[in-house]
Amino acid sequence: MRGEMVVLRPPCESDVEAAYAWDRDPELAAWNGRPPIKISFEAARRDYLARWKDSSVKTFIIEPRTDGDEPIGMATLYDFRNEGCELGIKIGRDDLRGYGHGAEAVELLLSYCFDVMGLKAVRGSTLAHNVRMQRVFEKLGFAESGDGSIISRFDNKRYTELFYERRWDA
Ligand SMILES: CC(C)(COP(=O)(O)OP(=O)(O)OC[C@H]1O[C@@H](n2cnc3c(N)ncnc32)[C@H](O)[C@@H]1OP(=O)(O)O)[C@@H](O)C(=O)NCCC(=O)NCCS
What we know:
alpha+beta, Aminopeptidase
């Protein structure tokens, strides 16, 4: 899938290193409410390759359209049910965030979900202090569908989580 700034493609073996670096990054882990992974590169590699083959989860590598083919992030569609799915996304490097890559990637994923997969809804959630992700949801027509309280596995503190949903006919 090609946008103006990013390309989304399926992951391959050469993406394992980037995926491992992102999953060990404490900042990214905090945004996801879980601890950085501690397992070895080999164990993580096995996990990734198995997950990327699992047809119940769709993983996409985000690459910039212009600056070569270095992966800059990852997006996942999962929990397919009730004609919808859940969306997760990360842009790996802090200095690449805030330039529109995330929003365009979500826009491409929405087209994929609605036009290719025929889904009727895409759901997402984020921590209440994750303003960037909330902006991405809002810009792309997601409606806030509720909130909840969670204990983050990153620091065992309580946070508010906001839930969003984008209907195909919104
Ligand atoms: C959340 C994330 C995917 C968004 O992708 P991105 O490429 O950074 O986002 P975009 O540039 O497309 O859009 C960000 C929006 O937030 C705004 N923004 C950027 N930095 C901001 C900041 N520090 N505070 C508030 N708003 C900010 C931008 O201005 C933009 O809104 P606008 O288009 O109305 O101006 C990315 O920042 C990321 O991976 N963050 C870390 C991991 C994460 O939070 N993942 C989501 C977990 S639910």
